[in-house]
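thoughts on these tokens:
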Amino acid sequence: MTIKNLMEELLKTINDCSSLGFEYAPTSEVPSAYKADPNLTYESRKNKKGKIIETCVLFVDIRDSVKLVDKHQFDTMGKIYTAFTKSVLRIADYHGAKVRNIIGDRVMVVFPSENCFTKAVRCAISINHIAKEINRIFDHVDFRCGIGVDFGEMRIIKVGTEKKGDENANYKNLIWVGYPANKASRLTDVANKKIEEEYFIVTRHPINPKAVQPLFEYLPFLGSLTGSSFNPNAPLYLNTKETVEMSVEDFANSICQFDDGSLYSSGGKNIKFEKKKRNRVYKPVLISKSVFDGYKKANPHAADVVNSWWNPQPKGIKNISEDVYGSGITWKIE
């Protein structure tokens, strides 16, 4: 096959994917990429079939793995990776979950819908417990892991191609499309970490609401939308002061400069601002509020619920707007 033939073949595949859609079937069980399933297809020239599941997804990742490899011998890290991965796979199986991705030192675990909150949280506790045991046994290595769990609807599609021989399994996989997988991964990124954050404290005169003309003040079929008190002669800024906290990104996006060199801030007239630093410390296990609420409802008398062992975590996790709860609890084994 020439490169021209290859590109022509790929263009046909791309056009096929572009012109055809997906048909999704609901499921409560975790799909597999390798098990024959008429509701998970990726053939050409027909609509692809996928599945929808509403459940919990968990990610776990080794902290500072690159630094660990640089610092310790390959033999030591090989033993740790083996012990860690085998432990996570056994724990997932014990708690009724399915491992659906292993990328380096990051593992993705998905739970059947039934009783998913309890299974996911207890699976996370078990992983945190065994991570501490690995750290105890390999006492010359600072081994830690971060765990993130979220809940919601995900759509699953099968991707890949048929390949003859031993390589066939390596050319197929499932893609999990939806916020829970993304959010769980984000939580894992910061779990069990101390993150230095820069931010701004800004003191300013707020913008005067009376000086802002509404975009739509009146529509014939709705009448007055705002009851606006817009006054074209009102000063742009109020005489009062307010002090706000802003991320570096938000502060940069709020500032612009005119041709005459003067500065403008979209939030108000800046009086002063100061750049500061702080550390955000996150627990080893992070769960979203939806997971916490579901777990608490299912286990109102559990020790970790009764004793408030899950605590609100610092805000500011990228792409996470809801509250996050964290804990470092392990099992008490007697």
